[in-house]
Design a protein that fits this description.
- This protein has about 325 residues and is α/β, with parallel strands linked by helices.
- The chain has 2 domains: about 240 residues, TIM Barrel (Alpha-Beta Barrel), CATH 3.20.20.70; about 70 residues.
- Helix 4 runs parallel beside helix 6 and helix 9 packs across helix 10.
- The two termini are about 40 Å apart.
């Protein structure tokens, strides 16, 4: 797969952009486990042009995580153009525009998936950003606003005509948020449209290596994007890449190995932020990790783990859990 001058493997596997998740430490970990390209947390164009420090920090990328995309969102042309030019100075490999975030504080204000209710403005922003920067521009969006307005097949052509170099499609509408099942049939329809010539990346409900294989084989996409399945499980990329390459499941990773990965996540998060914020940040991964599923009478331990405020306290709980893991 090729995004302008960015070469990616055939059947590329990408880490989805996720707010409060895809910080530099997590991106690098997923990269080391096999992610072919990683994305930053989404960046508010409004905050970026106002030089909000916390937002500017999201532009920090390292050579080790390349190829890396920085994703921006906003709701008007001048702001998005100025933000794109600021992002370009950070030298990402790709600049991605978020037209897919469904949360109310974004979509409710007309940005993210909110743009699915204003296609002329979406296209105007896309054309303007493409014209304003030299870095390859891509778009991530959804099937449409709701069940009655699944417009992605026509919209994909329109976005391609604006000059984007790749399109990622999440197989849900905005109204679905993250509920129900992702519908890949329209993603496949976009990919198999003879008028489409840019890479199409599919996103939504890829939680197993077998499902990754099925999405490539059944829908013909150029790449797949893994999001929530990576929470507390960055090794999912190792499992998926092994299966895509060999057709066989990766031999089971030991519980001790996986627990050590989670320890490393805590270490990296604390080093990147500080102890208090780092532990708060990593709780989402600990809460979602499949490593702890099936442990009998685990509720109290889980609560203690998610309330821990220091590394020492958290690692003490890990030591108590270790003998319980299969």
């Amino acid at each position: 797969m090729k995004i302008d001058n960015v070469e990616l493997p055939r059947e590329a596997v990408l880490l989805a952009p996720m707010e409060d998740v895809t910080d530099p430490a997590f991106r690098l970990m997923c990269k080391q486990f096999g992610a072919d390209m990683v994305y930053t947390e989404f960046v508010s164009a409004d905050a970026l042009i106002r030089s909000v420090s916390k937002t500017e920090q999201k532009l920090r990328i390292s050579q080790a995580e390349r190829p890396v995309a920085i994703q921006i969102y906003g709701r008007d042309v001048p702001t998005m153009v100025e933000a794109a030019q600021i992002v370009e100075q950070a030298q990402p490999d790709v600049l991605d525009i978020n037209f897919g975030c469904p949360v109310k504080r974004v979509a409710g204000k007309g940005a993210g998936a909110g743009m699915l209710q204003n296609i002329p403005l979406m296209l105007e922003i896309t054309r303007a950003v493409v014209d304003a920067v030299k870095v390859p521009v891509t778009v991530k969006t959804r099937l449409g606003w709701d069940e009655s307005h699944k417009i992605i097949v026509d919209l994909a052509e329109q976005l391609q005509d604006c000059g984007i170099q790749a399109l990622t499609i999440h197989g849900r509408t905005r109204s679905q948020m993250y509920t129900g099942e992702a519908d890949w049939t329209l993603i496949g329809e976009v990919k198999n449209n003879p008028r489409m010539h840019i890479p199409i990346i599919g996103n939504g409900d890829i939680t197993t290596p077998q499902r990754a294989r099925e999405c490539f084989d059944r829908y013909g996409v150029d790449g797949i994007m893994i999001g929530r399945a990576s929470f507390g499980r960055p090794w999912v990329f190792k499992e998926v890449k092994h299966y895509l390459t060999t057709g066989e499941e990766l031999p089971p990773l030991t519980a001790e190995w996986r627990l050590n990965v989670l320890r490393q996540q805590v270490d990296d998060s604390v080093r990147l932020l500080d102890e208090r914020r780092g532990i708060l940040h990593v709780r989402r991964h600990l809460a979602a990790s499949p490593l702890f599923k099936g442990i009998p009478n685990f509720r109290e331990t889980r609560i203690a783990m998610l309330r821990a405020e220091t590394q020492e306290e958290l690692y003490r709980i890990f030591e108590q859990i270790a003998p319980l893991l299969g």
